[in-house]
Structure to design on (661 residues):
């Protein structure tokens, strides 16, 4: 297992190199002169030249790329244009927030997705199955920001129902549980819907397998047939989806953080894009890509733990 | 109607009376098992033979009440040690399954759960039915593997099904089935998916275990060779009904039903030289179950069928040699040639 993880980590090196090439080119491919943009609109010709020299833009491209990568490796991501602070520090104070938002949302999607998926599968064709699947389709189709706004409308601002008000949660910030509930629901709903649908179809496939009949013929209780014999097999394809879903989740985090005014990486990036703060955007993309790659290694490990047919070595 | 137990020399462990299992679709009902009668003698083997779609597998699944939607047992009785299984609660059924009645299936490649070790899968039976601890159950599992002739059982218990060959997996299935020392073992085409040499090994193993453990076996197969080798009694099924039920010797020596004769005739012989005689086939094919013949189910394919056969369904009756046969030829109402000799066409 250890060997497998090490090998898997080594395999990600080309991916990470690809990511750095992409983020590196990003700044150089955007229309306009990066030095001009970075020096500001009212900068004089000398200032622009100075900036160009300072950023090393006069060096040959491979040298520039090497400088950039050695910066990334040593944690030097340059300085923000907007406030001049080191990008690495800006990211460091926010990454925890975004990772915990993504983590809780994934947890919620996996938990709800599997429960409802199994529920629908064992009631195949019944009304409850249809209702769950319609709800899943709804959850899947709802745009993130809209769901967030609706939740704020009903559960933060609240409505008077009988003798109480439904404004139980807070609409902005991140820290207390009242602040965390709505963003996590907003971000986790689509994933829950996808995982529920995936779990359902995977369960339906597994529940007709011969080994399920074998388990029943052994005198195993139906509940244990479903959760121990069927679900463990059904989860194998679901795990892959969870990994892919994480990418969508990071994209969703950008939107969710803005809707709920959460000071995370996503919000930092949106602000940076608006003020053309390229070092921040560049590094934000890099961090998101690293996160995605890392989570998918974890998913691979879990996949192999579940699926015994795959030889680890 | 005759009683299935009439032809047995032993006490029956299981008696199936007028069992009916149907599958319901939106448009029609498919009677997969339509009034089946037979009995299984204690410590002996009953073979159930028939073509695909004759209802043999559904019959066996009905005995364990493992029929899944849209299938349903709609009538009859299944008496196991004198008690009607169909009247038992689901919890009582679970105590019977894998404990008193066990089953092994046709497909060893897919009948074991791929994500659990062989040992875990055998242990489960011990843990459910005998309240054993995990450790103890694992130890007993290794003993079971040894019993079914798997070498180095202590290592094998830790392996996953995909690490074993088809024959090995079927041995594991047998180990699971026999773990709790059942009184009845249902084997649903246990050798069909295996190589011929492995087939012989598995059949021999089952026979050997029967001698040692004394369980009764229902051997479901479409292979008459398997029947001749392993069974004491045989029920021939056609389209959800038993058409001939007898001691195995009587069926092979003196088959009565035209369908049984047809099956035997379509069997190649290696033991005697038949000269230029061609291998015979049963003309036609099994009718679609949503369009059942009105009279005898076999009438459309039967070379002796008369108007009576096409109009009315015969009952299972005792013939002079003791075989129970569902055929008009052996009744007083027979309207065809009185001298007809069904087995005259036999090539063997």
């Amino acid at each position: 297992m250890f060997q497998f993880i090490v090998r898997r980590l080594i395999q990600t090196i080309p991916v990470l190199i690809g990511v750095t090439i992409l983020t590196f080119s990003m700044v150089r491919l955007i229309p306009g002169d990066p030095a001009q943009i970075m020096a500001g609109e009212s900068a004089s010709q000398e200032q622009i030249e100075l900036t160009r020299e300072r950023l090393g833009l006069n060096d040959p491209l491979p040298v520039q790329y090497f400088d950039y990568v050695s910066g990334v490796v040593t944690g030097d991501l340059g300085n923000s244009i907007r406030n001049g602070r080191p990008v690495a520090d800006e990211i460091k104070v926010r990454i925890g927030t975004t990772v915990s938002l993504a983590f809780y949302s994934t947890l919620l999607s996996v938990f709800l997705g599997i429960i409802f998926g199994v529920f629908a599968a064992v009631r195949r064709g019944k009304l409850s199955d249809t209702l769950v699947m319609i709800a899943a389709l709804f959850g899947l189709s709802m745009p993130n920001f809209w769901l967030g706004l609706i939740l704020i409308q009903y559960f933060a601002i609240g409505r008077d129902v009988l003798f109480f008000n439904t404004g139980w949660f807070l609409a902005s910030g991140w820290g207390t549980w009242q602040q965390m509930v709505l963003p996590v629901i907003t971000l986790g709903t689509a994933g829950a819907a996808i995982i529920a649908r995936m779990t359902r179809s995977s369960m339906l496939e597994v529940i007709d397998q011969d080994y399920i009949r074998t388990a029943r013929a052994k005198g195993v209780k139906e509940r244990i047939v479903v959760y121990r014999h069927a679900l463990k097999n059904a989860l194998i394809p679901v795990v892959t989806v969870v990994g892919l879903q994480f990418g969508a989740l990071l994209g969703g985090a950008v939107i969710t953080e803005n809707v709920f005014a959460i000071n995370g990486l996503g919000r930092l990036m949106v602000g940076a894009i608006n003020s053309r703060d390229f070092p921040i955007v560049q590094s934000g993309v890099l961090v998101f890509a690293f996160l995605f790659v890392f989570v998918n290694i974890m998913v691979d490990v879990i996949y192999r733990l579940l699926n015994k047919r795959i030889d680890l070595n | 109607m005759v009683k299935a137990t009439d032809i047995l020399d032993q006490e029956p462990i299981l008696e199936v009376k007028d069992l009916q299992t149907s599958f319901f679709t939106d448009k029609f009902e498919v009677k997969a098992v339509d009034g089946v009668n037979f009995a299984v003698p204690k410590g002996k083997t009953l073979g159930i033979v028939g073509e695909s779609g004759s209802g043999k597998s559904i019959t066996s699944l009905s005995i364990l009440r493992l029929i899944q939607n849209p299938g349903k047992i709609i009538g009859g009785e299944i008496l196991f040690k004198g008690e009607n299984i169909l009247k038992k609660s689901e919890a009582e059924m679970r105590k019977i399954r894998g404990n008193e009645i066990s089953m092994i299936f046709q497909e060893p490649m897919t009948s074991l759960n791929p994500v659990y070790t062989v040992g875990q899968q055998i242990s489960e039976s011990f843990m459910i039915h005998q309240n054993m601890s995990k450790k103890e159950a694992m130890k007993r599992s290794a003993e079971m593997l040894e019993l079914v002739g798997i070498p180095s059982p202590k290592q094998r218990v830790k392996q996953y099904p995909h690490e074993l060959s088809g024959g090995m997996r079927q041995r594991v299935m047998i180990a699971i089935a026999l773990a709790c020392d059942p009184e009845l073992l249902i084997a649903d085409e246990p050798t069909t998916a295996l190589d011929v040499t492995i087939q012989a090994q598995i059949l021999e193993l089952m026979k050997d275990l029967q001698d040692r453990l004394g369980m009764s076996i229902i051997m479901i197969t479409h292979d008459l060779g398997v029947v001749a080798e392993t069974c004491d009694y045989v029920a021939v099924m056609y389209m959800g009904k038993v058409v001939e039920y007898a001691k195995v010797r009587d069926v092979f020596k003196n088959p009565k039903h035209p369908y049984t004769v047809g099956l035997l005739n379509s069997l190649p012989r290696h033991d005697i030289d038949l000269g230029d005689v061609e291998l015979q086939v049963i003309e036609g094919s099994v009718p679609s179950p949503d369009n059942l013949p009105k009279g005898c189910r076999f009438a459309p394919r039967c070379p002796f069928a008369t108007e009576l056969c096409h109009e009315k369904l015969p009952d299972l009756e005792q013939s002079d040699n003791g075989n129970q046969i569902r055929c008009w030829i052996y009744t007083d109402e027979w309207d065809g040639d009185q001298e007809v000799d069904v087995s005259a066409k036999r090539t063997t």
